[in-house]
Design a protein that fits this description.
- This protein is an all-alpha fold and about 100 residues long.
- The chain contains 4 helices and no strands.
- The longest helix has 29 residues, at about 5-30.
Length: about 100
């Protein structure tokens, strides 16, 4: 593959990612009319887990409890709290404000 073609594929991938990321704010705002922030977060994680399981069904081998604890802490702080705060913020403000 040529460098120019790789660059275009990279830009396309970045555009698709940005588009999907931006759409989550508006779609979450709509979902808040029927679900609570925690329910939205749970369903989002369930869909993501199922999708990743279908893409790569093999699990990562267990190494030690310290590493498992680090993964759990990273998941709790980096993802769970972020989406909980995002979903809760969307109750109180517009999707465009929350995106900023």
């Amino acid at each position: 593959m040529k460098d120019e073609q790789k660059k275009r594929i990279g830009h396309l991938g970045a555009f698709i990612t940005i588009f999907i990321w931006a759409a989550t704010f508006a779609s979450t705002k709509v979902l808040l009319t029927a679900f609570s922030p925690i329910e939205i977060m749970f369903y989002r994680f369930a869909i993501a887990y199922t999708t990743l399981l279908l893409i790569r069904p093999r699990s990562i081998p267990y190494r030690n409890m310290k590493e498992e604890g680090m993964f759990m802490a990273a998941g709790a702080c980096g993802v769970t709290l972020f989406y909980l705060f995002q979903n809760t913020a969307l109750i109180h403000t517009f999707a465009s404000n929350s995106a900023v």
